[in-house]
Amino acid sequence: MSSRTLQDVVSFIHSSYTYHPLSLTSLNLTTRLDNAVNERDYIFFKPEVQTLLKKLTGLDINKVFRRRALGETPQPPEYKFMTTAQIQKEMEKTLKKAEKKLQMPPVVPISEDKPKVITKDPALAGYDPDDAKYIFTDINFPANDRARLIVVREPDGTLREANKDERHRMNQLYFPVKGRSLYHPRMFQPENLKPVLERRDYEFILDRACIQFEPDSIEYHNTVSVTYDHIDETRSYEVLRSTRHFGPFVLHLVKKREIDNLLEENFRSDRLEDAASLIQLYHIVHPDCKSASTKYTPGREIEFIQAYIDNDSNKKSFLQAALDSVEDIQKVDSG
């Protein structure tokens, strides 16, 4: 892992980040990055990637602050008489609040679940007549949940560190996080998740996953991947746009080299600058792609997009037809 990428991640961690009830520093990313083999796993943290993802997400104030069915009592509106200067100041505060609400969940690889064996004491084998495990938890403050000392004594006398599931349950038992369940909700089981996806309650699923799972857990990755793929299959991009999940969703498509459907939607909705930003992101993640040598010039989006279609698109005829339609409309408008 290069020092530059490590600095990017550390800088990101120390920024004001509120996506998750637990502090992002609890991910121990600094230690993991030192041992990382694939720098691409942490490309989400690069400043240029962050800039593009935020640009693609957009900021629709009405959508960010829309009323959602979360089971909470909405606050009544407050009316004030203000000067123009006061209104401007309140608008600036509102924009900052909106940006905070749009802070993206981090995209990190799945971490291994290999509890370290501390010692083996055969003399303690069979110490419990029911062959039960004993879990010992350090409940002192201010240890964070991931660094907290939690060990397990096995029936055969082995003393080891707790695995992810045991750690999750002990932390939730002693230090409950609001909205998080002791055991994973049934809604995340494939057969139960399917109807929620069909209702297109994507933001609800992703918000719930952020609360219930750690971002480096296999359960989190499986849930968001299934959700992202369903969004792409149904072309439901607008549902997620201007939410904190749109950036990670876009990065998911880019990593899989499956951006063509989203590009076509950009063409249809007159988002050529977004299409160019999406291809720029593609070039950063896949510097070996054929169109990566093409430089983007603002105002010349068509040429930049054309280079991607000619060299890297998986659906060339599909995208070419969509781009041709855009050019035809532009000719009519300019004529």
TrEMBL record:
InterPro entries: Ribosomal_mS22 (IPR019374). GO terms for molecular function: structural constituent of ribosome. GO terms for cellular component: mitochondrial small ribosomal subunit. PANTHER family: MITOCHONDRIAL 28S RIBOSOMAL PROTEIN S22, SMALL RIBOSOMAL SUBUNIT PROTEIN MS22. This is 28S ribosomal protein S22, mitochondrial. It comes from Bemisia tabaci. The lineage of its organism: Eukaryota, Metazoa, Ecdysozoa, Arthropoda, Hexapoda.
